[in-house]
Amino acid sequence: MRGPSLSSVGVGPPLWREARIGLEAAALVRDPVFRGDGVADGRGRPVLLIPGFLAGDGSLSMMAGWLKRTGYRPSRAGIVSNVNCAGVLLPRLEERLERLVNLQGRRAAVVGQSRGGTLAKVLARRRPDLVSGVVALGSPQVDPLAVHPLVRLQVEAVSRLGSLGAPGLFKRSCLNGECCSSFWEDLAGPLDAGIPLVSVYSKSDGVVDWHSCLDPHATELVEIRASHCGMAVSRAAWRAVADSLESFADADARRRPQRRAQVHRLPRAA
Length: 270
Known about the structure:
By secondary structure, this protein is an alpha/beta fold. It has one domain (15-264): 3-Layer(aba) Sandwich (Rossmann fold), CATH 3.40.50. It is built from 8 helices and 7 strands; from the N terminus they run ααβαβαβαβααββαβ. The chain has helices at 21-29, 32-35, 61-69, 86-104, 115-126, 149-163, 181-188, 235-253; strands at residues 46-50, 73-76, 108-113, 131-137, 197-201, 220-223, 263-264. The protein has a 7-stranded parallel sheet with strand order 2-1-3-4-5-6-7, with helices on both faces. It is globular, with a radius of gyration of 17 Å. It starts with 20 loop residues before the first helix and ends in a 6-residue tail after the last strand.
């Protein structure tokens, strides 16, 4: 199966919206959710965190610390910068996930931001025996290249360098070559019936077209107010993660039939 085309051109979301990330982080540390108030005890349940495009494990370090404080066992993906071929990354993530599950003795939830969410979905599709559920934060599952034109230029630059032989970078052929054909096929498909997929999106996302986050195979579509990069430090995103992880514990106890996606509408402003 062929991947998305870099040659298609569209109007991207306003990138200036990403300037909010500092305010979002400041609001988070003042919010009760940061202290774990109202968050169910994780009881040692494992969580694998996968960062977004161009980002590394450090981008989710605040979330990892929060999960640890609330009783979960977070694990990093071992990614310095998420720019490698999906065909290379997924076996490494699967190996790390296997170690985490074997160590904790129970299936792990996977939380991925942006490109990390697409990797998380495919990982869960391939290894449902290891995954209790997936939370995708601002992940363009429907069209991975439905992003701001400046971000598309970064994707193009990485793919050109990779095609020229630069190590650790995906190539242009990853979009239409054999190395990632199974990845694109798995990304377009559903997860096993007992594996929940929660897609968190924001209509004020400054990088990703929010429509591309509306995965038709998601069990839940959760709308929040946040910037794209800010989802890692958004109080609304953290609440969505906390609620999802708690529900995954129930789903892990017994395999339930997959539900149709339900869009959570934001309350109207007073």
